[in-house]
Design goal:
Blueprint: H1 4-13, H2 18-25, H3 29-36, H4 46-58, E1 61-66, E2 69-75
Antiparallel strand pairs: 1-2
Helix pairs in contact: 1-3, 2-4
């Protein structure tokens, strides 16, 4: 699973706005904004988290650590 901090870091690493991520993932801007304010796992549906994770990974983000232990990202060339 991913944390709100990882979502925010990934989006910023890609230089995407919240709207950019929303358009690419089909997750609403308000859901993304709420999710990014949480240090741990955001309280949203699993489907939304998976959509965000899949979208960010396809853009070259690798999620490392866990929400409770050194959450972070690595940036790779997009798939």
């Amino acid at each position: 699973m991913l944390s709100g901090v990882q979502i925010r870091m990934a989006r910023n690493a890609l230089r995407w706005s919240v709207k950019d991520l929303a358009d690419r993932s089909d997750v609403s801007t308000s859901t993304i904004t709420r999710a990014e304010t949480v240090d741990g796992v955001p309280k949203t549906t699993r489907a939304n988290l998976m959509a965000l994770k899949d979208t960010l990974e396809a853009a070259g983000i690798e999620f490392v650590g866990t929400p409770d232990n050194a959450p972070g990202i690595r940036l790779h060339p997009p798939r």
